[in-house]
Design a protein that fits this description.
heterodimer, A: mainly alpha, Arc Repressor Mutant, subunit A, 2 domains, 0% strand, B: 230 residues, alpha+beta, 10 helices, 48% helix, 15% strand, elongated
């Protein structure tokens, strides 16, 4: 329950869109409630749910790729034309677009470590890869982001 | 000394194991180029977390909280709910037996301490659950379920619980878990105790009144348990 704000944050980063993020969050919570008996007491509930969210997102992305991604472009166009907070919206979208250029595996590594604050080991467990693999994805993701954002980072 | 890019990033995150952490620290201190890189890594992290931070403060949409049942929104934003309550002056929780508790506390002083639980304190089974069960890690079928933990104005650790026998709030003092409030039994549903809406609301409202701050996080709870809730 107290995890919800953090789950929403991770979902927004993965989905790159708040509304999609909340849908993802909802799907995760429903699946977690269904599978609550599979969760092992003594392990971290947050990691368990992050792992579940990530898997749902991957399934969803595959389905979406098959469907085509036309609506994403439409929404990206909308978010640029904000009203009063236009400048802010543009700055924010630089980060979002930067994250959007990353392959999913790099983006999730960046999000888990740099936003969610997981250790490399914990993040690797959530993703289900060796720590070394996570480390190199993370570095490639960071390098790409820094290049995208320029020296103003 | 050569420092790999992976190592430099891990160093910036504080994730290198010793002795490498110290070695890289020395290299970074000696080389302005490396130091600039580390600063860029940290700036990127700050920028990313600042970008996503506002989401944590947003109210969670009802579509999400509704998944947990009706009492949910009250628990989520503990502090804010407390302030709202203070502003509105909602009626107090009805089932505390203040005077009776005070009397039993006075009695307890005169009771022989032969392993008996003083009146007004949690019995052995409940006390064990209060001592050991963490909200984050408890088993879903446990006879008593911990709802949340917090510190009261006196700095004592208190825990709200629900179970088949009784529900309530207990605070840890030198003698044991003193029951500050007791209520009815919770009904079993899907392996969890779900209290009737009004009972849960009263319990949460009472907890909010007693709490000196937000509910303990999972880490704080673990630390509190490690120090025997004192």
């Amino acid at each position: 329950m107290a995890l919800l704000p953090r789950l929403r944050r991770f979902a927004a980063g993965l989905a790159r869109d708040p509304a999609d993020g909340d849908d993802l969050c909802q799907a995760t919570v429903i699946r977690a409630l269904e599978k609550r008996d599979l969760w092992q007491p003594g392990t971290r509930l947050d990691s368990w749910m992050y792992r579940m969210m990530r898997n749902i997102w991957i399934d969803e992305s595959r389905a979406r790729t098959r469907r085509g991604e036309t609506f994403v472009a439409e929404e990206a166009g909308l978010s640029v034309g904000g009203g009063g907070g236009q400048e802010e919206a543009v700055t924010l979208s630089v980060i979002e677009r930067g994250l959007g250029t990353l392959p999913d595996e790099q983006r999730e590594a960046v999000l888990l470590v740099m936003v969610e604050g997981y250790s490399y080991k914990e993040a690797a467990e959530i993703v289900g890869c060796p720590v070394g693999t996570l480390n190199s994805r993370l570095v490639r993701g960071r390098d790409a982001l820094m290049a995208w954002l320029g020296d103003g980072v | 000394m050569r420092v790999l890019r992976e190592e430099l990033a891990a160093f910036a995150d504080g994730q290198l194991a010793e002795p490498r952490q110290s070695e890289v620290a020395a290299a970074v201190a000696a080389d302005p180029t490396l130091a600039t890189e580390v600063a860029r890594h940290r700036a990127l992290r700050d920028r990313l977390s600042a970008h996503f931070a506002p989401i944590l403060d947003e109210p969670v949409p009802e579509s999400l909280t509704a998944l947990f049942g009706k009492a949910a929104p009250k628990v989520i934003d503990f502090t804010a709910a407390k302030q709202r309550r203070a502003a509105r002056g909602i009626p107090r929780w009805g089932w505390i037996v203040g005077p009776a508790l005070a009397a039993s506390l006075a009695l307890a002083v005169f009771l022989p301490r032969g392993g008996e639980v003083p009146e007004g304190y949690a019995g052995a089974q409940l006390a064990s659950a209060l001592d050991n069960q963490l909200v984050a890690t408890q088993e879903s079928g446990a006879p008593t379920r911990m709802l949340l933990s917090f510190r009261n104005d006196g700095g004592q650790y208190c825990r709200a619980f629900a179970g088949a026998a009784q529900s309530g709030i207990a605070c840890k003092d030198a003698i044991g878990w003193q029951l500050k409030a007791v209520g009815g039994a919770a009904a079993m549903q899907q392996g969890n105790y779900q209290m009737a809406g009004s009972t849960a609301a009263e319990l949460m409202a009472k907890a909010q009144d007693m709490a000196a701050g937000p509910a303990l996080t999972a880490d704080q709870e673990r630390a509190a348990r490690a120090s025997a809730w004192r």
